[in-house]
């Protein structure tokens, strides 16, 4: 559990749905177009980690659920339907064997706030801080992506961040990092307790 006073749990959903996908090396701009169209066509709120640095094509995605206090959380069946639609139109391939298991999964943005010119942190900073706490964890660079259809307009957001797969005991350290990086909110997918929670400042 997160014990810092900087963040409050604002939404929770039962289950810990994630879906790994492999795709041919694809420019991020094309991935943007495909995921935005998926949100438009299905109404499903896309939340994804597009692994790799900003100058690299995308070859791997991890879709997940982002609970919203305003819009709720899509049921697992709706998520599975959206993935089937995505695979049918793109040829991208689901790879269930690559799904993370155990612990918690957290996408942590590296830009302070939402302004394009804001200070940007480095993945190495995250690794150095977590090393100090020991324990089991992995850190991968990714674009943190969301696309939601609201009033016939797709609201798109992405930023460079890291995806952390870690022991639950590292959550307080991760929350402290989120605060120091001026993150407004983050989502914790607990693969151990099978719950998904959104935290907000």
Q: Would you mind describing this structure in some detail?
A:
The mean pLDDT is 94. It is built from 4 helices and 10 strands. It has 201 residues and is of the alpha+beta class. The chain has a 10-stranded antiparallel beta sheet. A hairpin with a 6-residue loop joins strand 3 (46-51) and strand 4 (58-64). Helices cover 24% and strands 38% of the residues. The two termini are 16 Å apart.
Detail the poorly predicted runs. none
Alpha plus pi helix count: 4
Q: Distance between termini?
A: 16 Å
**Rg, nearest Å:** 16 Å
Q: Care to count the β-strands?
A: 10
How big a fraction of the residues is strand?
35-45%
Order of SSEs: EEHEEHEEHEEHEE
* Major sheet characteristics: 10 strands, antiparallel
Instruction: Sum up the overall morphology in one term.
Output: globular
Can you list the strand order of the major beta sheet?
Answer: 1-10-9-6-8-7-3-4-2-5
Fraction of residues in helices? 10-25%
The pLDDT mean sits at 94
Which structural class do the helices and strands define?
Answer: alpha+beta
């Amino acid at each position: 559990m997160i014990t810092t006073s900087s963040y409050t749990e604002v939404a929770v959903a039962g289950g810990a749905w994630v879906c790994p996908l492999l795709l041919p090396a694809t420019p991020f701009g094309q991935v943007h177009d495909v995921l935005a169209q998926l949100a438009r066509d299905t109404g499903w709120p896309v939340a994804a980690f597009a692994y790799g640095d900003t100058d690299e094509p995308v070859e791997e995605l991890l879709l997940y659920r982002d609970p919203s206090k305003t819009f709720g959380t899509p049921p697992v069946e709706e998520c599975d339907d959206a993935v089937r639609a995505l695979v049918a139109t793109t040829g991208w391939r689901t790879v269930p064997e690559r799904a993370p298991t155990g612990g918690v999964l957290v996408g942590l943005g590296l830009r302070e706030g939402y302004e394009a010119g804001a200070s940007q942190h480095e993945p190495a900073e995250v690794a150095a801080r977590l090393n100090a706490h020991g324990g089991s964890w992995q850190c991968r660079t990714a674009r943190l992506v969301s696309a939601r259809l609201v009033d016939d307009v797709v609201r798109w957001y992405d930023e460079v961040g890291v995806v952390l797969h870690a022991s639950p005991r590292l959550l307080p350290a991760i929350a402290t990092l989120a605060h120091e990086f001026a993150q407004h909110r983050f989502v914790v997918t607990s693969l151990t307790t099978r719950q998904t929670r959104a935290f907000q400042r």
